[in-house]
Design brief:
alpha/beta, nine-stranded mixed beta sheet, two-stranded antiparallel sheet, 27% helix
């Protein structure tokens, strides 16, 4: 079996303070961070012990995880495990990047978000260029607020063509966007309009719960981050029996890490092997045309 896991541990702290984020500038105690570290180490050990399966893993922390060395080491370890196909993480790139040299870079990927209100474009760009120079596969992106259009345009111009720059649509702000705003975001990210939708999902077939699961720090398995009912626990001996075909019970799905797994959208054909790190198929070829 090839199982994709979206792991979200107990960490709920961040070194940035974005106004739209509930975890902005939140700090955790040393004891709370120790719990997160222990949970992550247990998860990595579990993956290592299950060599009968292939794994792809995306860390989707509430906050910034890569500023903590145990997440860096987790990626080092996971990318060295033969039955791990890929290990990826969402990050603001505020950490040092020398640790990537310990990884198997063929299996490492980053999903990097630029926050113009908290870091200069030059600093974020320098981290992107360093990743590129070190041979790490990654996408970069920005939340689609019109007030950052100049920063976004400059970032696109300064990034190498082969780096995909995505725009996260701010769903509640869409009615206030002008046609010019939407056209601008679409010019930066050809897939922008895909992210503006609330996709009908109730009763629809989805890979979530069968070949894709969400796992928390206690090992609880859920179909995805957006359906809260647990379906099992990876630390139970019979955890595999919880995996089966399931129809979605939510009315709609509007987050990239959710709707890309809806069968009828066929977005696996759009993103292919870059589905975890949000890089569309043949992006390099498209940018060179």
């Amino acid at each position: 079996m090839h199982l994709t896991i979206l792991y979200r541990g107990p960490i709920i702290s961040c070194n940035y303070g974005c106004e739209y984020c509930p975890f902005a500038k939140r700090q955790q105690s040393a004891a709370e961070l120790a719990v997160d570290r222990q949970a992550l180490e247990q998860f990595v050990n579990w993956v290592a012990q299950h060599s009968q399966h292939q794994f792809s893993i995306l860390f989707t922390p509430w906050g910034e995880a890569l500023i903590h060395n145990w997440y860096q080491q987790a990626l080092v370890q996971l990318t060295q495990i033969p039955h791990v196909h890929k290990a990826a993480i969402q990050t603001n790139l505020s950490c040092q990047l020398d640790w990537v040299e310990e990884c198997n870079k063929d299996r490492l990927a980053l999903w990097a978000t630029f926050h113009p209100e908290w870091v200069s474009r030059d600093r974020f760009l320098s981290k992107c260029l360093e990743l590129d120079r070190r041979g790490v596969r990654f996408s970069a992106g920005v939340v689609g607020f019109p007030k950052y259009k100049d920063e976004i345009a400059n970032l696109r111009q300064e990034l190498p063509n082969h780096i995909y720059l995505w725009i996260n649509a701010v769903k509640k702000e869409l009615p206030n966007l002008s046609n010019q705003d939407r056209d601008f975001f679409q010019s930066i990210d050809p897939l922008y309009e895909l992210n503006t939708q609330h996709y009908p999902s109730f009763g629809r077939a989805c890979r979530a719960g069968e070949s894709v699961i969400s796992v928390d720090g206690d090992g609880k398995m859920r179909r995805c981050h957006f359906i809260k009912e647990p379906i099992g626990n990876i630390y139970d001996r019979d955890w595999e029996t919880a995996l089966c075909d399931r129809l979605c019970t939510n009315q709609t799905c509007h987050c990239h890490i959710g709707y890309v797994h809806l069968d009828y959208l066929e977005l696996d054909k759009v993103f292919g092997s870059g589905i975890l790190e949000r890089i569309p198929n043949n992006w390099v070829l498209q940018r060179l045309r």
